[in-house]
Amino acid sequence: MSEPMVEQLLDVTVTVNGRPRHARVPARRLLSDFLRHDVGLTGTHVGCEHGVCGACTVLVDGAPMRSCLMFAVTAQAYAVTTVEGLGSMDGLGPVQQAFLECHGLQCGFCTPGFLTTVTAFLCDNPDPTEGQAREAISGNLCRCTGYQNIVRSVLRAAELRAEAT
Q1: CA 80 remoteness from chain centre
Q2: Section 116-127 average pLDDT
């Protein structure tokens, strides 16, 4: 009779929102699960678990990444920014403020993925057209809205960023 397989645990340290976060996790722990269960940052939502919906999007060295498709051990070499790292209740970031002003959310489940995606997009394209805004969010799914207010939010966030500079 063979012995049951013992899952290998690894010490993982990931820089999350500017702080090193450490946990001892299974080798195949997804970044999304590391963030939610090991670090306690539950703003990153897990929807489809296949990288399709975009709800789990975080920034990895400033680029949008589906955290359900990346192992936590792989993320050790990068700086990860979650929705919690985009601002605070005392000082919302421009994308968060724009979504609030323009009602760019309804149930809120998809919102963290939109916020991180739009943040990265506006770094590369600070003055987007409506068409560019639509293209930028096309990889994120929302089941509650018709995307009109989300597009307005992207354009308003660009305005807020421009006003701040």
Answers
A1: 9
A2: 98
Nearest to 21 by CA among 39, 41, 33, 8: 39
Q: What DSSP state is assigned to residue 127?
A: S
Write out pLDDT tens, residues 2-58: 777 777 999 999 999 999 999 999 999 999 999 999 999 999 999 999 999 999 999
The CATH number for 9-85, chosen from 3.10.20.30, 3.40.50.1000, 3.40.190.10, 3.40.50.720, is 3.10.20.30
Nearest-CA neighbor of 55 among 134, 117, 110, 104?
A: 110
Write down the domain spans for the chain: 9-85, 87-164
Assign domain 87-164 to its CATH superfamily: [2Fe-2S]-binding domain (1.10.150.120)
Read off the pTM.
Answer: 0.93
Q: Which residue has the tokens 């489809």?
A: 48
Residues 6+ apart with CB under 8 A from 41: 16, 17, 35, 82, 84
Q: Which letter, b or e, does each residue of 4-41 get, where b requires 16 or more Cβ atoms within 10 Å of its Cβ? A: eeeeeeeebebbbbeeebebebeeebbbbbbbbebbeb
Type and span of the H or E element at 19: strand 19-26
